[in-house]
């Protein structure tokens, strides 16, 4: 690839790449070594911890039993001991059994959560029951070795997840730092030196603060332009005062003009590198928002809300967030164009921070719903600010690459954030995770204030930036009527676009945490499960996009993606299990990797006539709005299904819906394509 770079860029590309690889390799080495060390310590640290837990529980229980014995009640006649032990075991899943034996070892009372026919399977802690200095019996507290092995395995999974996510986060931060402090200034310096060496002294946009060498070169070009202007003024004065001398100097001026270029230009300086600056901002706001994905429905269902069943309590905050996104997005783009990218991003980040902070500080259901709607509005503003920034600083030659950087940051956050949030929720609680998200959003606002410019390139800012993805207000009633008569657009919107987002929000965001929680999985495990969607999307989306372009298979991939999603959700019919949920997540990730990018290409293809009159922006905006409305409906409808039929049956219903909507799309889209082709042939004849 280096052979295709401009000669000036090749001067610094290799050293930068070597520096980046060296630092990244060092990070990988250190992180891997720390993870392996933590891995080796997991068993020897966890076993004493469980032993201490069993001993502490035993001391507390034995104290209560001895207190009862002190009232003169014989050990063999204590009332309610098995029932009390059962309650203790219910609250402490790490304990396998509690038993009271007499001095001879005969069991008097016992309660268990496991099969205790194989005593070698258990770690037994025995505490004496002493009354007036005499041992009258023993209390036995047992921990199942299989539970210990499961805990060690889960802890090691968490170590692996932390390793992966920390490396991904380090990669994003390293890329940002190297670009901001090394690549961008070097590119600026090399580019200016190449222009000056070629005799091009035109003034370009000034370098960012803190770049003294680039600033010095900028000053040299500025001085050259001032000197050239002074020469022109002197030549003009000589034409009036000494025409003969002016005539003798004219060849020198012509020679000067032929060899050098002076003046000014609005040519951007670091277009491709500026997009990297917004990548880390995109990652941060997505990371802050997605931290709660693995547990939000479970947390919402735990809050009291009179008149609402658990399914509706779990789904309404997610629906409120998605509605906030859907209703704000069409206006956020135009608002960002007017206010500027930096100001709109900061405003969105502070709004998200406020919503997450309220969620963490006010454990009230109504406050949660309102805060989630506010967070959705802030999310929409931040998203459109970042997308608009990409459009501002790219053109038709590099916009695809710029959008890939932007979307890549979102996918990396999709992988990292739910897993990290689940691990933290298990250890510090739900509310602290929301507060951590608020701090990340605040940090994103502070970073945007530093790295984003207050104004953007005016030529590009005049274009309808990212706001081509959301300008629904520009979609006139006449355009909506025409699109409603376009059967292929209707099929694509209502049988593919809306169902895809419906399944994404209804299954992945809402149902997966609810179902896995009912199956006894921890928040850490739920976070690991949801990572699979981001991993499959990040790995396979470019592959399917290439296949769609190469074989012109857009409609086939859209249909196949929906069918695959449906087939992946249906095996829950044979019984709810974590493996079947994982299969459904993988099918959703692969299926949507196949269909999402192909959908937009089909939208452009089936609406060519409407786009000639109204432009592509309003059409894509309408399609995106329908998608987001489908996403908002997903948790609500799925919550109703959970409340009425249960979580496994809801997953089965979603699978049937995905399969039926995809088959309907195939039939309607193919039939409409044939009719349109026949009409076109008739019109041509």
Automatic annotation (TrEMBL):
Q: Name one GO cellular component term.
A: plasma membrane
- Work out whether the entry's keyword set contains Transmembrane: yes
Instruction: Tell me where the signal peptide lies.
Output: none
Major facilitator superfamily (MFS) profile domain location, by residue? 274-673
Q: Does the keyword Transmembrane apply?
A: yes
Cellular localization per UniProt: Cell membrane
What kind of membrane protein is this, topologically? Multi-pass membrane protein
- Keywords, in A-Z order: Cell membrane, Membrane, Transmembrane, Transmembrane helix
Q: What stretches pass through the bilayer?
A: 159-183, 276-296, 316-333, 345-363, 369-391, 403-424, 430-452, 489-514, 526-547, 554-574, 580-604, 651-672
In terms of InterPro entries, this protein maps to: MFS (IPR011701), MFS_dom (IPR020846), MFS_Efflux_Transporters (IPR050189), MFS_trans_sf (IPR036259), Sugar_transporter_CS (IPR005829)
Q: Which Gene3D superfamilies match?
A: 6.10.340.10, MFS general substrate transporter like domains
Alphabetically, the GO molecular function entries are: transmembrane transporter activity
Protein name, as recorded: MFS transporter
Query: From which source organism is this entry?
Result: Pseudoduganella ginsengisoli
């Amino acid at each position: 690839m280096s052979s295709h770079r401009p000669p000036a860029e090749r001067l610094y590309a290799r050293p930068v790449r070597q520096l980046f690889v060296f630092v990244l390799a060092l990070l990988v080495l250190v992180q891997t070594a720390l993870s392996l060390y933590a891995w080796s310590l997991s068993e020897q640290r966890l076993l004493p911890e469980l032993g201490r837990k069993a001993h502490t529980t035993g001391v507390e229980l034995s104290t209560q039993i001895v207190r009862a014995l002190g009232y003169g009640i014989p050990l063999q006649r204590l009332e309610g001991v098995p029932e009390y032990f059962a309650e203790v075991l219910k609250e402490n899943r790490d304990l396998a059994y509690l038993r009271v034996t007499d001095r001879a070892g005969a069991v008097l009372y016992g309660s268990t959560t496991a099969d205790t026919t194989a005593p070698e399977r258990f770690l037994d802690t025995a505490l004496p029951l002493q009354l007036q200095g005499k041992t009258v019996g023993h209390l036995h507290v047992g921990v199942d070795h299989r539970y210990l092995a499961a805990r060690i395995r889960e802890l090691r999974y968490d170590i692996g997840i932390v390793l992966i996510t920390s490396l991904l986060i380090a990669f994003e931060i390293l890329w940002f730092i190297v670009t901001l402090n090394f690549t961008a200034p070097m590119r600026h310096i090399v580019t200016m030196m190449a222009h000056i060496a070629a005799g091009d002294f035109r003034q370009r946009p000034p370098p960012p603060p803190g770049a003294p060498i680039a600033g010095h070169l900028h000053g040299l070009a500025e001085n050259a332009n001032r000197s050239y202007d002074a020469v022109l003024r002197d030549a003009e004065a000589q034409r009036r005062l000494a025409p003969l001398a002016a005539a003798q100097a004219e060849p020198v001026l012509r020679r000067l003009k032929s060899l050098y270029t002076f003046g000014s230009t609005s040519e951007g300086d670091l277009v491709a590198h500026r997009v990297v600056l917004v990548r880390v901002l995109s990652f941060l706001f997505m990371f802050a928002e997605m931290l709660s994905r693995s547990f939000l429905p479970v947390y919402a269902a735990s809050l009291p809300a009179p008149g609402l069943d658990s399914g509706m309590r779990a789904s309404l905050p997610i629906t409120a967030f998605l509605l906030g996104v859907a209703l704000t997005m069409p206006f956020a783009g135009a608002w960002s164009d007017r206010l500027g990218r930096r100001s709109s991003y900061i405003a969105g980040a502070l709004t998200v921070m406020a919503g997450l902070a309220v969620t963490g500080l006010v454990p009230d259901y109504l406050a949660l719903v309102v805060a989630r709607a506010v967070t959705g509005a802030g999310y929409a503003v931040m998203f459109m600010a970042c997308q608009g920034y990409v459009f501002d600083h790219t053109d038709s030659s590099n916009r695809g690459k710029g959008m890939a950087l932007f979307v890549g940051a979102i996918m990396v956050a999709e992988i990292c954030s739910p897993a990290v949030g689940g691990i933290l929720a298990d250890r510090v609680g739900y509310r602290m995770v929301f507060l951590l998200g608020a701090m990340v959003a605040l940090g994103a606002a502070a970073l945007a204030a530093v790295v984003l410019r207050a104004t953007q390139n005016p030529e590009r800012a005049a274009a309808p930036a990212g706001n081509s993805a959301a300008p629904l207000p520009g979609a006139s009633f006449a355009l909506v009527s025409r699109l409603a008569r376009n059967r292929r657009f209707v099929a694509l919107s209502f049988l593919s676009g809306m169902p895809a987002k419906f399944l994404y929000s209804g299954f992945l965001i809402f149902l997966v945490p609810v179902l896995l929680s009912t199956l006894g999985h921890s928040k850490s495990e739920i976070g690991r499960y949801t990572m699979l969607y981001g991993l499959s999307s990040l790995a396979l989306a470019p592959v399917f996009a290439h296949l769609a372009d190469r074989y012109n298979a857009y409609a086939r991939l859209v249909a196949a993606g929906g069918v695959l999603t449906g087939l992946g959700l249906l095996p829950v019919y044979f019984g709810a299990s974590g493996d079947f949920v994982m299969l459904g997540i993988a099918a959703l990730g692969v299926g949507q990797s196949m269909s999402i990018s192909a959908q937009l290409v089909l939208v452009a293809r089936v609406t060519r006539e409407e786009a000639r009159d109204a432009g592509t922006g309003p059409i894509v905006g309408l399609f995106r709005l329908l998608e987001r409305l489908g996403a908002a409906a997903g948790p609500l409808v799925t919550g109703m299904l959970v409340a009425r039929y249960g979580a496994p049956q809801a997953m089965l219903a979603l699978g049937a819906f995905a399969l039926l909507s995809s088959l309907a799309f195939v039939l309607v889209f193919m039939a409409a394509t044939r009719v349109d082709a026949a009409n076109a042939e008739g019109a041509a004849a």
